[in-house]
From TrEMBL:
Record-stated family: Belongs to the terpene synthase family.
Organism per entry: Ktedonospora formicarum
Name of the molecule in the record: Terpene synthase
Cofactor(s) in the UniProt record: Mg(2+)
Record keywords: Lyase, Magnesium, Metal-binding
EC number(s) on file: 4.2.3.-
Amino acid sequence: MYIEKRRLSSGMLIGIDFIDLVERMDFPQAMCSSDVFRVFLRATNNIVCWSNDIVSLRKEFENNDVNNLVLIIQHTSHCTLQDAVSIVRDLVRAETELFMNIERDLLREFPTYEQEIHLYTMAHRAMVRGNLDWSYETSRYGQAET
């Protein structure tokens, strides 16, 4: 339940829609509704959300904000905070591996869109990397809000 709500509240869906607008991409409906395409979109969103939950953990813990995957896993699994961080880190790694392999799958299913798929996946990579860079550079997570 949390993971689905986290995806919807992340703002990533809007960012992903902007890729289509900015790059003037118009993929066929068959591609957009394919399982491989939906898995790719979900992986992008998951990586950003779950990485953010690790980076923002201290702030959210200090503010008693339990809307964080690490804290939810700690609570539901009855494990230590460090073990929960490790679990989420492993989830991010697995999702990143899926993300990195999906371009090949998209190209196999939709070979006539090779150039567009490459541009699209590169834009997603830039979003993931940009979010991670911002998360470490912003002062937002450096201290608890008062």
